[in-house]
Design a protein that fits this description.
3 helices
Amino acid sequence: MSYAITSYVLYLVLTIGLTIWVASTLFKSGRVFLVDIFSGNQEFANSVNRLLVVGFYLINLGFAVSSLDAIGSVNDLSDLFIRLSKRVGIITLILGGMHFLNIYVFFQIRKSGKENRLTHV
């Protein structure tokens, strides 16, 4: 098998595995956070949680697959690891960025909700 094909296979396995692991961790740990944000409405929090995971998969896997050709030509084993680590690193940074963006948005929603509850009391 050529180095290029090996790099593509390893890249897909690593990025898909990383995406699944992060999504499942966020899904499990994020539920309590979402229930709090949505004032104890568990059904709504569960629904939002599932929708977030679907969007997370679509964005991350779509980016990973669409950037497969960015690995370029791979000449040897050393080149394979360098190119693979760069691409997986970019995916990891994107996953982290999306995670912090989600947390920021939900903290803003939570803050707004608490302000609304205080003004309506």
